[in-house]
Fold this sequence. Notes:
Layout: E1 10-13, E2 18-26, E3 29-34, E4 40-43, E5 48-50, H1 53-73
Antiparallel strand pairs: 1-2, 1-5, 2-3, 3-4
Amino acid sequence: xxxxxxxxxxxxxxxTGRVGFYVGSVAGRLLLxxxxxxxxxxxxxxxxxxxxxxxxxxxxxxxxNARSRxxxxxxx
Length: 76
């Protein structure tokens, strides 16, 4: 059994292949938030594993880029 992630940890949902941030749990399922924001989804704890360093780097770069685009969008 894997340890439960801490809030803010980047994880991979092996059932869907999606990568997201752990934000909490409800009724024994883990709540994950997409890297770019948007809707949260639930995952079985057994389907969630820590993201590899490469996946984490890519996800964090994507988040920074998305934030930059949102901020730049308000400049016109």
